[in-house]
């Protein structure tokens, strides 16, 4: 049994990890989360009180972080500003949380000698051409495009520097696009599902040729537990499940699974600087640590996700109108 501190545990992937870790281990978990617009304590409802605690606070609050590190064996760091579109609108919170917040955690890890796993993204590598057979590996050079991805790249580099300069016991993982329950309606898949549920036509940026490499959040959680248990300090692991799909195909699949004509969507203004394609080669994680994804059937995973949003309108409805108003103001 270990005492885990999970930052950003009220967000999409963090909450999925908390559920997964409590189900599959005997760890005790404390979540530290600021509850920004993206955090939702309802995502943590029903967890066992004897093994779970929630603390509201900012990862950039050094005194609070210090007290929580003092009582933790390991830290899994999910907290971030995570949405590219928001980073184009107002980059500042991305610097505060993704850079200064991560720095604050690293300093606490250094003081307390605490094991830290840093959650990052494949977007640090930039994008690939559609017809390029290459995929990202751990040795692909960093080349981030957006304010979001550049602050994530910056945070990764801070982690690497704190490992080398101060001997901090950290690992990093860079994962591809996640889908599953508890994802905010600002993101692509939940936005389109909840649009259809509300009778709004799905919105595709530009021509919809951009490719994302989809992985179920539960597979991501299992990979993170594997790295916590078996990962080599100082190493980076890419997490992906061979799930490349273009956005147009995903919208058409959502519409079909929801009983609508496959072409019942609108093309809207494209994202500025929109990355074309992401693709992950996760050979290192699979061969060195023995992880394998379970959700290999994307249409089945998507159908289950659609069902979750159908059954959990009370979870997503409070954020829907404001999210659509933000997009409408940008012609999206
Ligand atoms: P999210 O936006 O759903 O959740 C982020 C959480 O962090 C929220 O609960 C929010 O309240 C909290 N938070 C934000 N600022 C904070 C602060 N200063 N202090 C404490 N808590 C704060 O994000 P997500 O999609 O779950 O992403 C989680 C992590 O995984 C991020 O680091 C992201 O870069 C990474 N990631 C995401 C994806 C994806 O597809 N969503 C893929 C790869 C990596
Ligand atoms: O690759 C990992 C990254 O995946 C994570 O680091 C980010 O935190 C996460 O948000 C995600 O980034 P993307 O920008 O790829 O995700 P998003 O859901 O915003 O968009 C997915 C694709 O869908 C992208 O090509 C833009 C497009 N899109 C998005 C929205 C919201 C649309 O076509 N229409 C939309 O309405």
What topology emerges from the helices and strands here?
Layout: E1 3-7, H1 12-24, E2 28-33, E3 52-56, H2 62-70, E4 74-77, H3 84-89, H4 92-112, E5 115-121, H5 147-166, E6 170-175, E7 178-179, H6 188-198, E8 203-205, E9 211-213, E10 215-216, H7 217-230, E11 236-239, E12 244-246, H8 247-257, E13 266-268, H9 283-289, H10 298-311, H11 313-329
Parallel strand pairs: 1-2, 1-4, 2-3, 4-5, 5-6, 6-11, 7-10, 8-13
Antiparallel strand pairs: 9-12
Give a summary of the structure in a few sentences.
It contains 11 helices and 13 strands. By secondary structure, it is α/β, with parallel strands linked by helices.
Q: Give the H and E element order.
A: EHEEHEHHEHEEHEEEHEEHEHHH
Please state the CA-atom Rg, rounded to the nearest Å. 19 Å
Q: What is the CATH topology classification name of one domain?
A: Rossmann fold
**Intertermini distance:** 47 Å
The proportion of residues in beta strands is 15-25%
Say which molecules are bound, naming each kind only once: nicotinamide-adenine-dinucleotide, 2'deoxy-thymidine-5'-diphospho-alpha-D-glucose
The largest pleated sheet is described as:
7 strands, parallel
Q: Supply the helix-strand structural class.
A: alpha/beta
Q: Provide mean pLDDT, rounded.
A: 98
Helix proportion: 40-55%
Order of strands side by side in the largest beta sheet? Answer: 3-2-1-4-5-6-11
């Amino acid at each position: 049994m270990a005492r885990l501190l999970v930052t950003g545990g009220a967000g999409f992937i963090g909450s999925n990890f908390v559920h997964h870790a409590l189900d599959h281990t005997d760890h005790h978990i404390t979540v530290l989360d600021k509850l920004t617009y993206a955090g939702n304590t309802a995502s943590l409802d029903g967890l066992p009180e004897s093994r779970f605690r929630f603390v509201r606070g900012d990862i950039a609050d050094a005194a609070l972080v210090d007290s929580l590190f003092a009582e933790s064996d390991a830290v899994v760091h999910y907290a971030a500003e995570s949405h590219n579109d928001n980073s184009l609108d107002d980059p500042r919170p991305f610097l505060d949380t993704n850079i200064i917040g991560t720095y604050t955690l690293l300093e606490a890890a250094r003081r307390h000698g605490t094991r830290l796993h840093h959650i990052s993204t494949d977007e640090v590598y930039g994008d690939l051409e559609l017809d390029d057979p290459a995929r990202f590996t751990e040795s692909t050079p960093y080349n981030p495009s957006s304010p979001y991805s550049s602050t994530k790249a910056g945070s990764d580099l801070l982690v690497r520097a704190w490992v080398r300069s101060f001997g901090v016991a950290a690992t990093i993982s860079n994962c591809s696009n996640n889908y599953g329950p508890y994802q905010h309606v600002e993101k692509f898949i939940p936005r389109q599902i909840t649009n259809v549920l509300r009778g709004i036509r799905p919105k595709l940026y530009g021509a919809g040729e951009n490719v994302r490499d989809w992985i179920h959040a539960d597979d991501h959680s299992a990979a993170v537990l594997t790295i916590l248990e078996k990962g080599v300090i100082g190493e980076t692991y890419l997490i992906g499940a061979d799930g490349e799909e273009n956005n147009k195909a995903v919208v058409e699949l959502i519409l079909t699974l929801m009983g609508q004509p496959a072409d019942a969507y609108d093309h809207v203004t494209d994202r500025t600087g929109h990355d074309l394609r992401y693709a992950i080669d996760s050979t290192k994680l699979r061969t060195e640590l023995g992880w394998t994804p379970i959700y290999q059937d994307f249409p089945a995973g998507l159908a289950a996700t659609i069902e979750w949003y159908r059954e959990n309108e009370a979870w997503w409805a409070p954020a829907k109108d404001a999210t659509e108003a933000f997009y409408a103001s940008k012609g999206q």
